[in-house]
Amino acid sequence: MSSIDSTQPIVAEEVGLLYDRLTQLDTEEAGGSLHLGYWDLDDDTTPLVEAADRLTDMMTDRLRITGGQRLLDVGCGLGQPAMRIAQRVGAHVSGVSISEGQIARARKLAAAQGLSDMVEFHHADAMRLPFDDESFDAAIAIESVFHMPDREQVFREIHRVLRPGGRLVLTDFFERGPIPADKQTAVNRLLRDFIMTLADPGDYVSMLARAGLRFVELLDITEQSVRQTFSQMARDGERDLDPIFEEETDSKFSPADMIDVDEFGSLLLVARKPA
After folding, report:
1. How sure is the predictor about 21, in pLDDT bands with cuts at 50, 70 and 90?
2. What is the DSSP letter of 180?
3. Which domains, and CATH codes, for the chain?
4. Which helix H or strand E contains 74, and what residues bound it?
5. Which of these ranges, 36-45, 99-108, 206-215, 241-250, has the smallest mean pLDDT?
6. The dihedral of CA 124, 173, 189, 238: what is its sign?
7. Which run of H or E residues covers position 271?
8. Calpha distance 130→202 (Å, rounded)
């Protein structure tokens, strides 16, 4: 795994505070989702909120869950994907987030939509999940593992709470190729301000195996997700990021700076616990 500064490891509590601040954003127009969208290659007009739901649905289809089963949402954010999945397939979804603010907001949103009997949200660390062994039929992690201090430890915990045969579907960011020097500053700002590391896809098979999981599928979805998301963020919502970062500086992250960084990639991965 790579990061902008290996001497400054990710601290879970700092990630929690970051997302506490992110809950200050008015997410009504975003439908509560804070993740990338998915567009067909010839489609650049679909709003981000719809494209984000499309990515959630793609991931849900790969979970292969049905009504009455239990799903774990690792890094659940404000709970919109969990609620969408619960309504779409009839599963019971348990979401966890390191952000107390997100959990409080997710619970309110679920209650407002009458979904408290189908979804529940817990303030918890994904590296120490507060659930019994073999509690879930599947797990999903939408753009959350890049915030984790140790991806492999998270996968061990997911393996522990999954029932035999259960699937894990996740999205992660990775370096598609060497990032040119003139683009490195923008990437560094993103990683720094959002407390993330980039994955090495070549590590995933062995890392999953060490955690007890088996690799099933890996898709590079960069062309369908990254540029369009940053473009819409820059056009519609960049100003809303201003109150999130405590330091007022010209060097803070800007979505517009990432639009043409083709080397910054997004992947979708599927794994399963052996039956």
Report:
1. confident
2. P
3. 12-272 (3.40.50.150)
4. strand 70-74
5. 241-250
6. negative
7. strand 264-272
8. 30
pLDDT at 40 over 60: yes
- Which has the minimum average pLDDT: 203-212, 221-230, 245-254? 245-254
Residue 220 backbone phi and psi in degrees, to 5: -85, 110
pTM (global) more than 0.85: yes
14 is catalytic: no
Check residue 2 and give its pLDDT: 38
Per the CB < 8 A criterion, the answer to whether 176 and 2 are in contact is: no
Rounded CA-CA distance 207/213 in Å is 9
Please enumerate in sequence order all residues whose Cβ is within 8 A of that of 146, keeping only pairs 6 or more positions apart, or say none: 172, 173, 196, 197, 198, 199
Neighbours of 248 (CB within 10 A): 7
Q: What angle do CA 12, 243, 113 make, to 5 degrees?
A: 75
CA distance 155 to 221: 22
The residue-averaged pLDDT of 22-27 equals 61
Do residues 74 and 166 make contact, with C-beta atoms less than 8 angstroms apart?
no
- How many beta carbons lie within 10 A of that of residue 72, not counting itself? 27
Catalytic choice (29, 143, 157, 247): 143
pLDDT at residue number 16? 74
Residue 147 has which token pair?
């915030």
The per-residue b/e assignment along 250-269, b for 16 or more CB within 10 angstroms, e otherwise, is eeebbbebbbebebbbbbbb
